[in-house]
Amino acid sequence: MIKRRKTKTIEVGPVKIGSCAPIVIQSMTKVPTVDITRCVKQINRLVQAGCKLVRIAVPTRADTAAFAKIVQKVNVPLIADVHFSPDRAIEAIEAGAAKIRLNPGNIKKRKDILRIIDAARMHKTAIRIGVNEASIRDLKKQPVPLQERTALMLREMKKYVRLFENRNFTQLVLSAKSSDPSRTIEINRAIAKTFDYPIHLGLTHAGLPEDAQIPSAITLGTLLAEGIGDTIRVSAAGDPVEETKMAKEILIALGLHEPSTPELIVCPTCARAEIDVVKLARQVKKTMSTIDKPVRVAVMGCVVNGPGEAADADLAICAAKNKAFIYRSGRKISVVPENKIISALMRELQNLLG
Ligand code: SF4
Questions:
Q1: Which atom of ligand 1 is nearest to the CA of 302?
Q2: Which of 23, 81, 99, 226 has the least CB density, counted as fewest CB within 10 Å?
Q3: 278: how many CB neighbours lie within 10 A of its CB?
Q4: Which atom of ligand 1 is nearest to the CA of 318?
Q5: What is the pTM of this model?
Q6: Across 107-121, average pLDDT
Q7: What is the DSSP string of 231-255?
Q8: Any atom of ligand 1 within 6 Å of the Cβ of 306
Q9: Within 10 A of 171 (CB to CB), how many other CB atoms are there?
Q10: pLDDT in tens, 285-312
Q11: Could you give the CA distance from residue 259 to residue 229 in angstroms, rounded to a whole number?
Q12: What is the 304 CA–ligand 1 centroid distance (Å)?
């Protein structure tokens, strides 16, 4: 059982972020913000996939104007992603952003950061303050050696948090980003030790979905297993719904999110397999694709380990020569010939789901 790190609770519209609340999945739109129709459509798909917060980039005045309209059309709190421009930050806050993402390091003037803080306080907007490894430079504005980066990122974060707290603003979520899994883990551990604000976890520039999956799962999974992380985003090039699915899978694997769809367990197969396990598993997966309940089904290639594994599944198929045994909650309920396995499974699934 994972013990979450104790943090403050931050309100992002109706969504709470922090140790008293479930870990929040978020993602980002990837269509032009000014294309309001497509943006709203993508937001709705993300919500359907499991996002509780959606972030939108607002690089121009036209984007913040579109943001104001999008806020009115969706049922999810929106985060405005701001870089470089204090005006965009304030426009987004006034447009109804529930939270803004800000890297104070790229807002040049201190008085502009203070203006943003004051606007956020007035509109009850939370702020995620971020430090990016790529933007860390030493006092001579030179790139910093790898082994010194965590200390420097932490120092930057301390400086920003002090600035916000001195302005009496504590509706903060902290994030430190790197594209390197080890340094992401290291800096987030350091931030978790130093502050009691919720942490946004992500591995930045992780790659194409197929390349991002394992590094993201390792990085986020390691931190989450240590109780670190209160909102997560998996970053991958491509459809953000895929990011959301990956984020959900990471949380489900750690027992931090209830599964809402069927889970298929398949033995890896070996020389004992009595049947084409992969072919059968693919057929079973297709059969289960229309089910939206968290039922657990196991497909096992033989009766050596099959019954043991079947005990943890709602339904299990254990193959034997030209036939299969069907188990329900670990109890053998029928024996069917190989060509009747799928129809028997369908029948049992219907019985199980009522
Ligand atoms: S269930 Fe049987 S076939 Fe599958 S991996 Fe285990 S021993 Fe091999």
A1: 2
A2: 226
A3: 14
A4: 1
A5: 0.90
A6: 95
A7: EE----SS-HHHHHHHHHHHHHHTT
A8: yes
A9: 21
A10: 998 888 888 899 999 998 887 777 778 8
A11: 19
A12: 7
